[in-house]
Structures are given as C-alpha cells and as structure tokens.
Amino acid sequence: MTLITFLVSAIKFGMVLLFGSTGETITEKSGHLNLGLPGIMCVGTACGCIAEAIFFDLVGGRRGMENLAFLAVLIPILATLIGGALMGLIFSFLTVTLHANQNVTGLAMTTLGVGISDFLIASVDGYKFTAGAKFFNTSLPFADDLGAFGKLFFSYGIMIYLSIAVAIATSLVLNRTKVGLHLRAVGENPATADAAGINVTKYRYVATCTGSAIAGLGGLMFVMDYLNGNWEYVIDAIGWLCVALVIFTTWKPVFGIFCSIVFGAFYVAAEYIPGISLASKEIFKMLPFLVTIIVLIMISVKNKKENQPPASLGQSYFREER
Amino acid sequence: MSKQASVKKHTEPLIHITKRTNISPLRAILIRAIAVLSSFIIMALLMFLLTKENPITLITSMFQGAFGTSLRTWVLFSDTAILLGIALALTPAFKMKFWNCGGEGQVMVGSLVAAMMMFFVGDSLPFPLLILLTLLLSTAVGGLWGVIPAFFKAKWNANETLFTLMMNYIAIQFVTYFLKLFGNAQGNLDPMLQFAIPKIFNGPYFLNILLILVICAIMYVYLRFSKQGYEISVVGESERTAKYFGINVSRVIIRTMVISGALCGLIGFLLVANGSCSVTTTIAGGRGFTAILVSWLGKFNPIYMILTAFLVVFLQRGTSFTGEIYRLDTSMADIFIGAVLLFIIGCEFFINYKINFRKRDKEGK
Predict the structure, then answer these.
(1) Taking CB atoms and an 8 Å limit, are B334 and A290 in contact across chains?
(2) Confidence grade of residue B11 (pLDDT, cut at 50, 70, 90)
(3) In this complex, do A292 and B174 lie within 8 Å of one another by their Cβ atoms?
(4) Residue in B with minimal Cα distance to A309
(5) The dihedral of CA A34, A36, A38, A42: what is its sign?
(6) Looking at domain A2-307, which of 1.10.10, 2.50.20, 1.20.120, 1.10.3470 is its CATH number?
(7) Dihedrals phi, psi of B245, to nearest 5 degrees
(8) Which of A17, B77, B163, B174 has the most beta carbons within 10 angstroms of its beta carbon?
(9) A246-268 residue pLDDT tens
C-alpha cells in the first residue's frame, strides 16, 4: 500500500510540474526561452487564489460555495489563466516588440512576479481560498470501491486530468495541425517562417501568452490540490523545476506525462524510503536536477535532430537583420 | 478594379523600425533616465494609493533607508560591492555569449566550502593559513562549478543557460544537506565568528568595497586590453570568425568559465569569512540572478556596472525601509525592482532602434 501512496503522491506532484512544462514547451517552441516562468506561475496562482477569495465573499462563505461547487473550481482556473496570460503579454511585449534580451527580461519578470504574488497573497485572508481546496480535491465517487487500481487512477481531483488533457491536446496541436507546424517553424527559423508568410510576431505573442496561462495552472493545482489550499512560498522553485522538466521531456508534451511522473517520484521519493535520514533526503531532492543535466548532456552528445531544443531558442527576431 | 485597390493599399507601413547605428551617449543616457524616472513615478503612485502618504515623503524615506545613518551607508556600499562582484564575475562569460545563469550556485558552493573549512579544520590550523586555504579552496570549487557546464558546452554544445540553472539547485541541495548534517535543530549553522576576517573600521564593509573595486579595475583592463579579453569578445561576436583567427574556441570557453566561477567562489568566500561566518541556502539571496541584470544593464562594462549595481541595491534597501515604516508588505521591494528593471530593459529598444513614422508627403522617386 505504501507503494500506491508513493505513486499517487508522485503523480500528483508530477502533474503540477506537467502544467508548467507543457506551458513552457509551447513558449519554447516559438523560440522564446521564458525564464520568467517561476514568476508567471506565482502570479497566475495568486490571481486564482484571490479570485477564489472574492468568490467566497460573493456567495456568502462556505455554504454558498457548496451550492456552486462547479464555479468554485472554474473561477480560480479562469483567473489563473488570465493572470498568467497577462504576465506572458508583458514578457512578449518586451521581447518581441521591443526586441529585449529574453534571459534578462525573464529574470526580471521572475523578480517582479514573485513580488506581485507575495503582495497579492498578503492582502487576502488565507482561509477564504483554502475553503475552495476541497472542490479541487473532489475525486470520482467510485475511486474507493476499486481498491488499488481505483486509487492509482481515479483518486485525484479535476486538475490532474486537466493537465494530462492539456498535454495531449498540446502535442496534437503541435504535431498534427497547421498552426503547430507554423509555430515550430517560427521557433526553428523565424526568418524562413517570415518569408513563408507566417506572422512571426503573432505566433510568438500567442504562444507565449498561452504557455504562460497554462503554466499558471500548475501553481494553482499545487496550492489548491497538492497543499490543500495552503499558500507556500515555493512556487518559484517549482517553476525552475518545470523549466528543467522541459529539457527532460525533450520538448514533447506527451512524453512529458511520463517524465513528470518520474520527476515527481524523484522529488517525493525520500519521504517513502524507510529508515532514511533527514539529511539524505536532501540528496534525493537533487535527483531531478541531476537527471535533467544528464539528459541535457545526452541530447547534446547524441545530437539527434528530433530531440534538440528549437534552433532559434532564446533569440529575438528582427526582420531587417538577416 | 479590386486588384488595383489592393496594390495601392500596400504602400508603406505606418511604423517602420530601423536599427540605429550610433546614438549620442547623451541621448542614450537621457532615454534611460526617462525610463527610470517613469518607473519611479508609477511606483510612487502605487505606493501613494496603498499608503495615502505624500509621494515625496515616500521618496525621502527611501533615501533615508539607503543613506540615513553612516552604518546604512556603509551597508549600502558594501552590498553594492558584493552585487557588483558577482556581476563582474559573470561578465566575461556574457561577453562570450555564454549565458552563465549559475552565479547563484557558484557563489553558494564558494560559501559552503568556506563554512566547511571553518567547521572542520578551523580549530586545528593557524588563522592566517586557514583564511588563505579557505580562500583558495572556495575559489577553486567555484571555478569547478563554473567549468562543468563550460566543458559540456565546449565539447558538445550543451545549452549552458539550462545547465548552469540546474547547477544552482544542486548547490542548494548540497548546502541543505550540510546544514541538516551539522547544523543545529533549526537547521542553521551557528556563526563561527572566531574565524572572521578582522574588521577594518567599523565592520566588514571596507574590505568588501576595496577588494571589489580592485577586481573591477582588473576586470576592466582584462576585458579591454588583454589578449584573452580580446579573444573573449571575438568568440562572443562570432565563433566562426574566432576559428578563422586560429582561436581555440573550446579553450577560451573553458578558461573564461573557470575565471567566472572562481570569482563567484571568491565572493562566496567573502560572504562567509568576511560576513556571516555561516552558510544558508539564501546566502547568495538571488544576487546570482540580479547580477545578470546588473551586468547586462551595464552593457558588460565594469565601470557602468558600478552604477547599475548601485541603482539596484539602492532600490532594494530604500524600498524595504519605506515598506517597513509604512507597514507595506516586504514584497514591495521585489515589485519595485522588477518594474524598474523591466522599464530599463524595455527602453533599450529606443536606444538601439529608431521608429520612423510614415511621412505624409511622398518624397521623390
């Protein structure tokens, strides 16, 4: 049974990361290395929590929420999407329209985002959004009847299934549609894409905003589902973990479902190994990053075309500079 | 008819952006000043809305927080020195277009090694030898932390931004591991103040400032006038050109990152031996990342970087002081710095590019 609890916990944490990595993958496919992801996730999450708190006041507390359980989940999700997209918009305005350096902009966005989210969260009563957590936790009613199988596959809140759905949908869009093809073209070689009549600016804006919006959901899920509605100031660290995860997935969202569970397993493993000392747990937490480095080295050494980062990753595009 | 109309519509776009080749320094400074000023105004307005205090009082209190007492001024300049030091360490790598985002980790391992030296062999070595050995080891380990990503970049072109970022977290975990093993119940390491570098004047500040000004001067000369500095710029401009010149690109990458990491390690050493005499996971306090901004905003020029480092530290100290007085959340400082930085980053556009509006009258053709 410990194994099952371990796996459940790994999957839960992994799916938090999956949101972030799917979002960042979309962004990176357009050639944007968005190092503002941690900050964006923070802001997205804070917006979701604030919306939940406002909703709590509007419907008159816990009892009101019970009647509108559906909205209690939907409203924070929408608010998170908007908050994330707005941050993405600032990022793309600076990097696309103003041709600013992406690394520098991203890092400044992280500083700004962490600040904004701390500020927002400090301005609201925690219990109001904590009240919403149980709607995120609600699992399918028959999960308990199916024993281990049910626990492993059906014992989660809505966000987990959403994250898998988003990853699969992203993968389909990227690989099977014209939009995806264009997006990848923009990320590989914006000049060629531009010559082919693809609106590079539009693709980069939309991809970055979409990616940021989705990434924000990871933070929301972390707070509302994984932590049962308790805010913790570690969302930025999770953001960096997501940036790492993108490399581990070699920029493939569906493969990312598997990778994120592995990552989640590494991260929570120490808690489930009997007789391990408190100190050694910390060494275990190093694993996700070590594995990412190993993957990064492997994809560079092997130099396989399909596993590489988008060729123009991190470079801004100015049409008149060829 | 429709064909003709559509042809006519495609005349000239309303806004046409061209790259500026040269801009007078005065104008460049003016644009930056406007950017900083407008971000100040926005933040002052925001603070005004939150506190209902006169914005002028708020700004005055910022200056008080930064310069109010002589101790505050010392801390301000010492913090500036440390941030500048890390930025100086990163600069050679950036000039080479090697995005060293691992300053945080490189500083942290330097600090970790320094704290470990004090903890394990502090009592058995004479003080001068201890400091010397610690200095050497911190620098060496910092250099090692920097050279690992460089090696893989040079050999197999592994993405250095992501690699160095990951190295930060490995450093953090090593520090946590060490603290869990040897720290007290709260997971902190008690300061080993007996091993601190003796104070000059009223604290550790003077030594930091002096040392980093020296490093700044050396770095300026190194980048500007030495052969190695020249090689760094060539590799940064174009690796191919560097190859035609007969520059061994791999060697330059590795050598530069050893320097970069080692300098970060040195700052880590300063933070411990000339500072807290202990180590925490927040000892670098995000300065490894802020330093990237400092270096970039300073155009990778050590002299300009003094100014940008000062601006950032001034904002940090000033805003957190104002925040405390008016009971604002401490996060105000982060928001303020983030906003100012984004404004400066954004204004670079107006320095590097020129916006041409479509002219009313068609000029001769």
Answers:
(1) no
(2) low
(3) no
(4) B159
(5) negative
(6) 1.10.3470
(7) -70, -10
(8) A17
(9) 888 888 999 999 999 998 888 88
Which helix (H) or strand (E) is A92 found in, with range?
helix A69-92
Q: How far apart are CA A161 and CA B17, in angstroms?
A: 45
pTM for the whole structure = 0.86
Residue B235 in tokens: 């590799």
Do the chains contact at B286 and A101, CB–CB below 8 Å? no
Cα B142–B146–B147 angle (5° rounding)?
115
Taking CB atoms within 8 Å and a gap of at least 24, the contacts of B231-236 are: B232/B92, B232/B95, B232/B96, B232/B256, B233/B95, B233/B96, B235/B96, B235/B97, B236/B94, B236/B95, B236/B96, B236/B97
What CATH code is carried by the domain that includes residue B314?
Answer: 1.10.3470.10
Confidence band (pLDDT; 50, 70, 90) for A144?
low
B353 contacts on A by Cβ (under 8 Å)? 99
Answer yes or no: are the C-beta atoms of B104 and B168 closer than 8 Å.
Answer: yes
Query: In which domain, by residue range, is B164 found?
Result: 74-325
Chain A residue closest in CA terms to B286: A111
- Set of chain B residues whose Cβ sits within 8 Å of the Cβ of A115: 331-338
Tokens 């940090």, residue?
Answer: B316
